[in-house]
Amino acid sequence: MTNRARIVVLDPVDPDALDALAQAHEVEVRIRPGHDELLALAAGADALVVRSGVRITADVITAGQRLRVVARAGSGTDNIDLEAAREAGVQVFNIPGASAGAVAELALGLLLAVTRNIARADRQIRDGIWDKPNLAGPELRDHVLGVVGQGPIGSRIAELANALGMRVLASVARPSPERDAVLRERGVERVELPELLATADAVCLSVPLTEHTRGLIGEAELALMGTGSYLVDVSRAGVVDEAALLRALREKTIAGAALDVHSQENGTPEFAALDNVVLTPHIGATTTDAQAKVGRILVSELNAALSGGSATSRVC
Q1: Cα–Cα distances in Å, from 43 out to 37, 60, 64, 108?
Q2: Which end of the chain, N or C, is less packed with Cβ atoms under 10 Å?
Q3: 213, 207 in Cβ contact below 8 A?
Q4: In whole angstroms, what separates CA 17 from the centre of its chain?
Q5: Any idea where the D-isomer specific 2-hydroxyacid dehydrogenase catalytic domain is (predicted)?
């Protein structure tokens, strides 16, 4: 490459990746700027790098007069206006699968935390309270986990749950006999979503946010779940109707929930007032191992895209 491209990094990425990019390009790191500053940064950028914290809207893409690439250093593209990028001829790619193991492990950690009341027990002990009788919860072995979505994350969740002795059901967007055979080989039984919700002792959501999955779990779906069941969400805010979930948790029509994604991040969600909820601040992919892997792929894909080629995980 004869010309050094200008890359603006808008969300935290692995430091080694930044160093590698800086060897061939001009790299500026401006973490989660305000919208006006974001427009100004886009105006002089050849590439923008985001995770989930910054939205690349149509006006950002329009402001990027020399913008060629938007890179999502993780899975999903719900924070990028793909139609605007497509119309502007801006290449968009993400890095699906690299953080699947990290997200899956968090999902199982959240499930254990909410079923065994780990967070509540920790808070009580810090307050000098020992209330063992009211902290009893179910074991996971011999119970049923329903996994909504069987992409890289959902598949790994199913694998981990199988290792714990759980029976695993799955709901998938595009079923086929071939896919059913693969699921059976993994020890997973495919069922339709209503049956999954009605049968599972715990339900884990692992789907992207699309027009088809927005509001996928609402009042009617929560009503299918049993009073002793739990919901774990490591997908995207918007997949669950949060108002309906709040009602279900307050009225104890389900036993509890563990949420890594929230409609209003960087704030205190209403769920924080409830004892039967475990909350984490969208840290599914935040492990040193996952971010190092994402960083290595990011460097390779950006170099390919900026040299006139195409990223292997190009979305548009």
Answers
A1: 10, 8, 4, 42
A2: N
A3: yes
A4: 21
A5: 7-315
Contact 299, 98 (CB under 8 A): no
Cβ 3 vs Cβ 66: under 8 Å: no
- Alpha-carbon distances, residue 257 vs 29, 76, 112, 250, 252 (angstroms): 36, 23, 11, 11, 11
171 close to 191: Cβ distance less than 8 angstroms: yes
User: Please, which residues bridge with residue 258 across strands?
Assistant: 232, 278
The pLDDT assigned to 1 comes to 42
Q: Are 101 and 290 in contact (CB under 8 A)?
A: yes
Write out the catalytic residue numbers: 236, 265, 282
Task: State the Cα–Cα distance between residues 83 and 89, nearest whole angstrom.
Answer: 10
Please state, in angstroms and rounded to a whole number, the distance separating the CA atoms of residues 267 and 259: 14
For residues 6 and 28, is the Cβ–Cβ distance under 8 A? yes
Mode of pairing for the β-strands spanning 202-205 and 188-190 = unpaired
**Using an 8 Å Cβ cutoff, are 69 and 35 in contact?**
no
pTM confidence score: 0.91
Task: Sort strands 144-148 and 230-233 into parallel, antiparallel or unpaired.
Answer: unpaired
- Number of neighbouring beta carbons within 10 Å of residue 117: 20
Instruction: Single out the residue of 111, 188, 109 nearest to residue 155, CA to CA.
Output: 188
Beta bridge partners of 233: 205, 259
Tokens of 16: 């080694």
- The pLDDT averaged over each successive group of 10 residues in the chain (316 residues) is 84 96 97 97 98 95 97 93 97 95 98 97 96 95 98 96 98 94 96 98 96 96 98 97 98 98 87 96 95 97 95 94
Q: Which pLDDT belongs to residue 3?
A: 73
- Is residue 30 a contact partner of residue 17, using CB atoms and an 8 Å limit? no
Helices and strands per DSSP (H, E), number in the chain: 12, 12
Distance CA(100)–CA(85), nearest Å, equals 26
The DSSP letter of residue 240 is B
What pLDDT shows up at residue 25?
Answer: 97
